[in-house]
Amino acid sequence: MPGMGKEEGLHAIFVYGSLLPGLENASLLWPFARSDPQRGSVHGRLVIADGYPALILPPPGTTSARRVRGLWTLVDRETLSRLDRLEEYFGPEEANDYERVWVRDAARDELAGWVYVWPDDRGRADALVEWWPDAQLGF
H/E element holding 72? Predict the structure, then answer.
């Protein structure tokens, strides 16, 4: 999906947790996705937050050898707003649970878009996996 996110009115997003197909929040995204899912990964690590994951990105200006696998897709503004509500993202400089930030795919520079992250691990345990469904096997 080269040029993902350049289509008029659409937003590229990267999902890695409960929004993945077959998981508990998938129905909030996939019936409304405007493109087929495309596999990807971003630099960072997952922590376990009460049964769901949070992505922690490397500090600005650095990279990490660790990656988190997920899926890229395109959504319209309404779907992005629905996901903002799920992730308790209220906007920049607000008291958010997750922040929505712009990232590039770890392997393919042409893929970039929004992802929901925590700015730090909040003392939560490292998931020790790069793919959230693998972490769920331990629950």
Answer: strand 67-76
Residues of the domain holding 42: 10-136
SS3 81: helix
**What's the pTM value of the predicted model, to 2 decimals?**
0.91
| Residue 126 to residue 53: CA distance in whole angstroms | 10
Per the structure, the count of domains in the chain is 1
The pLDDT assigned to 7 comes to 63
Query: 7, 8, 78, 87: which one is catalytic?
Result: 87
Q: What is the CATH number of the domain that holds 63?
A: 3.10.490.10
- Please say if 87 is a catalytic residue: yes
The answer to the question of residue 5 being in a domain is no
pLDDT, tens digit (0-9, with 9 covering 90-100), for 50-86? 889 999 999 888 878 899 999 999 999 999 999 999 9
Q: Is residue 121 part of a domain?
A: yes
